[in-house]
Specification:
6-stranded mixed β-sheet, 328 residues, Heat Shock Protein 90, 2 domains
Length: 328
């Protein structure tokens, strides 16, 4: 060619994960108590647990206490999945419905943890339990982890995850983080101490995410709840979607009436694979066409609640939009 441009033969390229990405897995999560409890509680729920016990243990040398998250779910048959990021032992149907990323244990990659588990027995005899102790080097692929038999693994089945708290994370701070994770979680969560009887464990408070809604309707695997003058907890970006106990702000619309109430909407997820979250931590939603449709459907749910109110006072703009949607 006269311009001297180089000729390049066509070729095929394909996505791959470079080994250097593995060295950075300890930064996939911020390693806060909120992250850790969110991930361990979700794993327990997916494993079919009927409840979760969180036990505060003794202080470690030069650090805070240990924390153990114990469930009675189906356990982990293959411990190798703990270090196979993106792979998990969930069914294909669950992975499809919840977009399970198989990376939740990375929330503990910076701290390290010990995991013991026992899957259910196919017959009358219990299966063998196992234990593996993981440090950051294991997560980064710099060292191999030894899996050992463990008679003290949860019985007859289940999983226990033990991790060290930071020196500044005292009992009150740990409990506060757990209460925040448990408040809208669908299973009971119990708080106990290793130096006390298991019978002394305390059931933490739970409340329905849509508690107080004046209007409720289902839409494409979600449940919308409409609120009149719902107080703000954290400002304008309050969490407005509940993913099985993990609450996320996706900026659903609100409606200000003329000299009257402020109407808002929140959503509980029942079975909605179309709503996608930024993985692995699920702290925000991916902006997709579905999310835009969801926001419009949420606005119309507010309009239907307004239509049933004896003194709705919508603005002209909202009144017009409701009429165009055949509401009112």
């Amino acid at each position: 060619m006269s311009n001297g441009a180089l000729m390049i033969d066509s070729r095929i390229i394909r996505a791959r994960i470079h080994n250097s990405a593995l060295k950075r897995v300890t930064r996939a999560f911020s390693a806060t108590l909120a992250d850790i409890f969110a991930e361990t509680l979700q794993n327990a729920r997916r494993a079919g647990a009927t409840g979760v016990n969180v036990v505060l243990g003794e202080h470690e040398r030069d650090g805070g206490p240990t924390v153990t998250v114990l469930d009675d779910g189906t356990g982990i048959a293959d411990p190798a999945v703990l270090l196979s990021f993106g792979e998990n032992g969930w069914s294909g149907d669950l992975v499809e419905r919840e977009d399970a990323a198989g990376m939740g244990l990375l929330s503990l990659a910076r701290r390290g943890c010990a995991v013991s588990s026992r899957p259910p027995a196919p017959g009358d005899a219990p299966t063998a339990g196992w234990l593996v102790e993981l440090v950051p080097e294991h997560f980064a692929g710099d060292a191999s982890a030894e899996v050992r038999p463990e008679a003290g693994a949860p019985y007859p089945h289940g999983t226990a995850v033990r991790f060290p708290a930071m020196e500044a994370e005292n009992a009150d701070r740990i409990r506060g983080a757990l209460e925040a994770a448990a408040i809208h979680y669908p299973l009971p969560v119990y708080w106990g101490r290793a130096d006390r009887s298991p019978g002394d464990a305390e059931a933490l408070p739970r409340r329905a995410f849509l508690d107080g809604a004046v209007h409720v309707e289902r839409w494409r695997g979600l449940v919308f709840g409409v609120f009149r003058n719902r107080p703000h907890r954290f400002g304008l970006n309050d969490p407005d979607v509940n993913f099985h106990g993990l609450t996320v702000a996706v900026r659903l619309p609100g409606v200000e009436t003329v000299g009257g109430a402020r109407w808002s909407v929140a959503a509980d997820i029942e079975d909605c694979p179309e709503l996608q979250f930024v993985l692995p931590a699920r702290k925000e939603a991916v902006e997709t066409p579905f999310l835009a449709e969801m926001r419009e459907a949420a606005r119309r749910a507010i309009y239907r609640a307004l239509a049933a109110d004896p003194d709705p006072r919508p603005s002209f703009g909202d009144w017009t939009r409701a009429r165009e949607a055949d509401i009112g």
